[in-house]
Amino acid sequence: MPHAERGMAVGLFGGSFNPPHEGHLLVAEIALRRLGLDQLWWMVTPGNPLKSRLELAPLADRLAMSEKLVQDPRIKITAFERTLETSYTAETLAFVKARNPHVNFVWVMGADSLKTFHLWQKWREILSTFPLAVVDRPGSTLSFLSSPMARAFGHARIDEDDAGVLWKKQAPAWTFIHGPRSALSSTALRAKADSKS
């Protein structure tokens, strides 16, 4: 797990990153800037319960590709979840919170994840652990209005103009951040690679 000093604002950006691409990097950079973060932990997950293990590249490969893609020293590439022996975000966030009680964390995710967020194990618990920043992705701009999460936690949404103080808010609190978007997706990149082989 990366080191963070007391009082820092740190974004937690988890995913399969299978493979990592410029769209992921854009989400990370937008989060750093708009949320006023000191660091962002790019958490490469060992697996994803909602995705097939068959299509998942080895963790070491996804880590190496992430390290090659990311140049900003504030973005810390990590795969500490492999030592937790869990693939559930709620358990990871509870562990992070217990180990870093004096750090201000924000969970960061792309808007494309909102469609299935209510299917994640203990998704309501996730929203009660840390504030959440949802960063716009192509084709997902309106998902923050229609997703079960957005409807259930509409009362906890803060205005995008206040995104810079989201890390100071008590969970549940969340915001939707508009901005530049990349049309790249891991699914499309895998399909392109498969068609060449």
TrEMBL record:
InterPro entries assigned to the protein according to its UniProt record, in alphabetical order: Cyt_trans-like, NadD/NMNAT, Rossmann-like_a/b/a_fold
Biological or metabolic pathway of the protein: Cofactor biosynthesis; NAD(+) biosynthesis; deamido-NAD(+) from nicotinate D-ribonucleotide: step 1/1
Name assigned to this protein: Probable nicotinate-nucleotide adenylyltransferase
Domain of life: Bacteria
One GO BP annotation of this record: NAD+ biosynthetic process
Keywords annotated in UniProt: ATP-binding, NAD, Nucleotide-binding, Nucleotidyltransferase, Pyridine nucleotide biosynthesis, Transferase
Lineage start: Bacteria, Pseudomonadati, Pseudomonadota, Alphaproteobacteria, Hyphomicrobiales
SUPFAM superfamilies found in the cross-reference section: Nucleotidylyl transferase
The family this protein is said to belong to: Belongs to the NadD family.
UniProt source species: Rhizobium deserti
Keyword match NAD: yes
Cytidyltransferase-like domain residues: 12-191
GO molecular function, a single term: nicotinate-nucleotide adenylyltransferase activity
Function of the protein: Catalyzes the reversible adenylation of nicotinate mononucleotide (NaMN) to nicotinic acid adenine dinucleotide (NaAD).
EC number: 2.7.7.18
Enzyme class: transferase
Reaction catalysis annotation: nicotinate beta-D-ribonucleotide + ATP + H(+) = deamido-NAD(+) + diphosphate
Record Gene3D superfamilies: HUPs
